[in-house]
Write a structure and sequence with these properties.
114 residues, single chain, 5-stranded antiparallel β-sheet, HIT family, subunit A, binds zinc ion, binds adenosine monophosphate
């Protein structure tokens, strides 16, 4: 059995509040939301992070962003943030690729990149 928490959610071995599901993708509410709407969009296939995707995953990556847009619309969000953390220094805790969809309150600007 996989030890990955998100693989367990995909396998329905752990409960989750699912808002979208198809053959390749599932989206569910974050257990520790940082905003009124906080949804995670993940591939059903275990991929460690964006950095571990390959050229043949381009279609899947596009579909993940498309689902992010769709669930944001369904939640009534107009302004929101889509983010993916990569690796320890990127703040990634769960090593299964996921896109955070966060909104429902004004979000702080990202720190200056300059
Ligand atoms: P990250 O820091 O990008 O790896 O984010 C992982 C996210 O997964 C965090 O926002 C957690 O609150 C969330 N999380 C962890 N376990 C669960 C779970 N069982 N169900 C839903 N969300 C979870
Ligand atoms: Zn996994």
């Amino acid at each position: 059995m996989s030890e990955c928490v998100f693989c367990k959610i995909v396998a329905k071995e752990l409960p989750s509040d699912v808002v979208y599901e198809d053959d390749a993708i599932i989206a569910f509410r974050d257990i520790n939301p940082v905003a009124p709407v906080h949804i995670l969009v993940i591939p059903k296939r275990h991929i460690k992070s964006l950095q571990d995707t390959e050229p043949q995953d381009e279609q899947l990556l596009g579909a993940l962003l498309s689902v992010a847009r769709k669930v944001a619309s369904e939640q009534g969000l107009e302004g929101y943030r889509v983010a993916t953390n990569i690796g320890k220094d990127g703040g990634q805790v769960i090593e299964h690729l996921h896109f955070h969809v966060i909104g429902g309150r004004p979000l702080a600007e990202l720190p200056s990149l300059g």
